[in-house]
Amino acid sequence: MLFSVCITYYYKRNNIEDLLFELNKYKLNDLEIIIRNDNTNHKLNIKNNSKKIKIINEKKKSLGEIESIKFLLSKCRGKYITIISDDDLISHKIFHDIKKNKLSNQSYIYTSSTKLRDFNKKNKFITINGYHILKNFFLRKLHLSGTVGVFYSRNFLFKILGSMNIKKYNFDTFLLFSAIFKGRHRFSNYIFGYNNTSSSRISSKKINLRIYLLDIKNLISNFNNSMSQDLYYNFSKFNLDNFYSIIFRKNVKYSLSHIKEINSLILKNNKSKFLKIYFLIFFKLFEYISKFIYNFFKYLK
């Protein structure tokens, strides 16, 4: 088997039919599609099920996304593997494009988009190297995922997972960093991935900040030495923007200790004592205090 598409399913928005419809446009028999349904209260049944598709319905206990992924990987047979959630999309064209490259790389990274109208089109972005890819990813000029639109050689993926210490969050970011920093990769500006952010917002309301910060710590410890001063600055800004956007969501519980912790993490790993990092943290704190005061007076009204 050449390709394995491993799909984690939990009945988020029930868009899995769209994903399977797209995958079934690929007519060759060197593709397998394995779905694990982690929702014990909902049995997954697929209309017009093809021989390529294998469904595993969990009957006893939900494992969570990362454990579901590990389970799927233990069952798949492909030389090249991708991992995707039930509400996202990858293009059927991706398989032909990988074959054109004669399967010479450990990972194939394709651009993704949060806009369905861009799916299967070509991005104008022209890459120079891994640094250029990540910098534009941190600046949000380039939408990438370590899962949606990325294929890994089997041995390389299992090697990554063997060194992974991510508990719950930033799993796809860890994969993306590993592909760029630790292996032979090929980047394509074809938008062969679609990331459904509507579903992401639904699930992100339940974020556990203690685990979230632990995963950022593990991400920094694994890849900080591979980053230049400038890239670490953009990485820090990326993390701070994400963190502050999370704590201002409705029903998210946080304390000042969480803010102190993320700032400490970033400063501790600022080995070159890059002055811009200090200004960045100060600016983000000022932004937070201003927004907090604004929301407080808005609440009083």
In percent, how helical is the residue content? 40-55%
In the CATH scheme, what's the topology name of the largest domain?
A: Spore Coat Polysaccharide Biosynthesis Protein SpsA, Chain A
User: What is the CATH class name of the largest domain?
Assistant: Alpha Beta
Distance linking N and C termini: 63 Å
Could you walk me through the main structural features you see in this protein, from its secondary elements to its overall organization?
The protein is α/β, with parallel strands linked by helices. The chain folds into 2 domains: 3-202, Spore Coat Polysaccharide Biosynthesis Protein SpsA, Chain A; 206-300. 46% of the residues lie in helices and 16% in strands. It contains 11 helices and 8 strands. It has helices at residues 16-23, 65-75, 93-100, 130-138, 154-163, 171-182, 197-204, 209-223, 229-247, 256-268, 275-300, and strands spanning 3-9, 31-37, 53-57, 80-85, 89-90, 107-113, 150-153, 185-194. It has an 8-stranded mixed β-sheet, with helices on both faces. Helix 8 (209-223) runs parallel beside helix 10. The radius of gyration is 20 Å and the shape is globular. The N and C termini lie far apart (63 Å). The mean pLDDT is 89.
